[in-house]
Amino acid sequence: MEKQLKLYFEFLENDKKLSDNTLQSYKRDLKQFKQYLDSSDKNYSKLTNQDIKDYISHLQEIGKKASSISRCIASIRSFYQYELKNKKIKEDPTDNIQSPKIEKRVPSVLTSKEVALLLDQPKDVDLKGIRDKAMLEFAYATGMRVTEIISLNIENVNIAEGYVVCKTGSRQRNIPLGNMALKALEEYIENAREILIKNENEKALFVNINGKRLTRQGFWKIIKYYKEQAHITKEITPHVLRHSFATHLLQNGADLKAIQTMLGHSDISSTQVYMQFQDDALKNIYKKAHPRA
User: Which CATH number belongs to the domain containing residue 175 in this structure?
Assistant: First the structure.
C-alpha cells in the first residue's frame, strides 16, 4: 500500500494540480487509514464494504466529527477509484458507502461595527502595526481563505488597478480591493515590507518579523491578539472575516453570483448559506421591487 499511496500522491500533485493544503488533507486521511489497516493486519486491496463501515465506526469511537469522517471517506474513495482505474484492485470497497450526515452550521459573522472596531486596533506607528493593519483590511476586503492569503506573492497584487490575483491549484480569480484596503496595503508595501524582508528574493506578500512568509498559525495569533484588544467576545478567526465579507456584501445588495465568484465557490449552494443573514430592509426592497413577490 505504501508504494501505491506514493504513486497516488504524485498523481494528485502533478496531474490533478491540487493545492498544497488539499494535498496535505488527502495525505493525512490516507496515512491514518493505512495505520488503522496495519494495526488490524488487513490488506488494503482485499477490503469489503463492511471493513470500510468498521473504519467509520472506529473514527466515531475516537471522537472524529461527522465532517472529518465525511472528508476521510471521500479521500479513501478517491484513492480506491484511482486504484480501480489502474487495475490494481478488482472492486471498490467504498462503493455504496454513505458518509455521515453533516449538520449545516450557521457561519459566525461579525457586525459592521465589530469589524470596524477590530480593524481599528492595529496602529501604523511601527512595522508590525502597519503590516497588521494591511493584513486585516485585506482579509476583510477580499474574503480570501487564510491559506490563499499567506500563499500570495507580491506580484499577485495590482495596486494601480486595485485588484488581487488569487490562484488555487489550476484555478484563478481576480478580486477587487476597496480604497481602505488599498491604502493600507500600499503603506505596508512601501514603508514596512521592504524593511521587514531580509532577502530581496523573498516573494511573499505578507511576511513575519523575521522577513519570512507568514504562516497560518501566525495569522491566527494576530487576529486573536486584536480581538482581545478590541474586547470582542465573539470567536474571531480568518474564516469569520471571510463569512463577514460575504454577509455584508449580500446585505448591501451585492449579487449572489458575484459573491460566489469572489469567494471562489465552485457550487453556488455553498454561497447560498449567507442568504439567511439578509436583513429585513433588503427583504422589503425585494417585496416592493419584484412583480411576483
Answer: 1.10.443.10
CB hemisphere CA count around 124 (13 angstroms): 20
Q: Report the alpha-carbon distance of residue 151 to residue 146 in Å, rounded.
A: 8
Alpha carbon distances (Å) from 90 to 51, 59, 82, 228, 268 = 16, 26, 12, 56, 36
- Collapsing DSSP to helix, strand or coil, 227 comes out as helix
Residue 166 lies in a domain: yes
Nearest to 226 by CA among 112, 110, 122: 122
Residues 25 and 134 in one domain: no
* Same domain for 175 and 75: no
Reduced to 3 states (helix: H, G, I; strand: E, B; else coil), residue 216 is helix
Q: Which residues of the chain have pLDDT under 50?
A: none
CB 112 within 8 A of CB 248: yes
Task: Encode pLDDT of 241-269 as tens digits.
Answer: 988 988 888 888 777 888 888 888 877 77
Parent domain of 60: 2-85
Q: Are residues 29 and 80 in the same domain?
A: yes
Alpha helix ranges (H) inside 17-165: 20-40, 49-61, 66-85, 112-119, 127-142, 146-151
pTM above threshold 0.90: no
